[in-house]
Write a structure and sequence with these properties.
Blueprint (H helix, E strand, L loop, with lengths): L1 E4 H6 L1 H9 L4 E5 L2 E6 L4 H4 L2 H11 L9 H8 L2
Parallel strand pairs: 1-2
Antiparallel strand pairs: 2-3
Length: 78
C-alpha cells in the first residue's frame, strides 16, 4: 500500500486514480496522519441494472388513483 501527502494527492490525482484503477490502494496523509484511502471500486456495487429492475417489479400494479399528476403537484404546493 502506497502513502502520499494531501498536497501530492491533489497535484497528482489523475495518476493516482490510474494506479487505483489498476488495483492499488493508496493512503492519503496530512501531517503524517492517515485521512483517506483510495481503493478500487467494487464492480458489484456500481451495476445499477438489478436495482432498477427490482424497482420496476415493485411498481407493478401500483396505481396513483384518479388524480392527475398536475393536481398532485399543485396539492403539494399548498
Amino acid at each position: 500500500m502506497t502513502s502520499v501527502g494531501a498536497y501530492e494527492a491533489k497535484t497528482h490525482l489523475a495518476g493516482l486514480l490510474e494506479r487505483v484503477a489498476a488495483g492499488e490502494t493508496i493512503t492519503i496523509t496530512r501531517h503524517g496522519r492517515e485521512i483517506a484511502k483510495l481503493v478500487p471500486a467494487d464492480p458489484t456495487l456500481t451495476d445499477s441494472a438489478p436495482i432498477i429492475e427490482a424497482l420496476k417489479q415493485a411498481r407493478q400494479g401500483v396505481r396513483r388513483g384518479p388524480a392527475a399528476t398536475r393536481e398532485m403537484i399543485d396539492e403539494g404546493r399548498r
